[in-house]
Amino acid sequence: MSEGIASRIWPTVLLLGTVTIASAAIGLIIGIYGGWRHGGKFDVASLNVTLFFFAMPEFWFGILMLMAFAGGVGPFPAIFPTGDYETPGADLTGWAHIADVLNHMFLPWFVLTLVYLGQYALIMRNSLIDVMNDDFVQTARAKASGTSRCCGTTSFRTPCCRRSP
């Protein structure tokens, strides 16, 4: 039993490690840009999309992606394999092995990245909006003689030069 678990640890670490890095990076960028332009078109669109992916059950989205890309839809053939970490029985080495592993891990990586980036984007967006409405940012806006003087000096270089609501 412990051999079965031990053989699955490194593929799991590889998958979840890269998913966490990718979803955090993409989610933080989306959250910063959405919070920076609070109430704009990008903010509203990204908020709706990230809430949709955040609220969606992972297994359901995974099943939909498996049906679409691993099972094929209508006349379209299957693009990705449905299981395993690598092709069973194939003794691939070097770049061929890396390409095979990436092909097997792309679909779960894609599903988990989309689902997890929602939480990073929402947390960053709401945190940035909270900081931009803090008293010290409002004071910096009021004291600044011009918008460029205030920008980049307070609150994680938040856009204190942004128009006040």
Task: Report on the architecture of this protein.
It is elongated, with a radius of gyration of 22 Å. Helix 1 (2-36) crosses helix 4 (94-132) and helix 3 (58-70) packs across helix 4 (94-132). The chain contains 6 helices and no strands. The chain has 2 domains: 2-132, no CATH class; 135-165, no CATH class. The mean pLDDT is 80. It has 165 residues and is mostly helical. Helix content is 70%, strand content 0%.
Summary tags:
single chain, mainly alpha, 165 residues, elongated, 2 domains
Instruction: Let me know the largest β-sheet.
Output: none
Order of helices and strands: HHHHHH
- Number-wise, the strands total 0
Report the structural category: mainly alpha
Q: How much is the average pLDDT?
A: 80
Q: What are the low-pLDDT stretches, counting only 5+ consecutive residues below 50?
A: none
Number of continuous helical runs: 6
Radius of gyration: 22 Å
Q: End-to-end distance, in Å? A: 61 Å
Strand % is under 5%
Approximately how much helix is present in the residues?
Answer: 55-70%
Query: How many independent structural domains?
Result: 2
Describe the global form. elongated
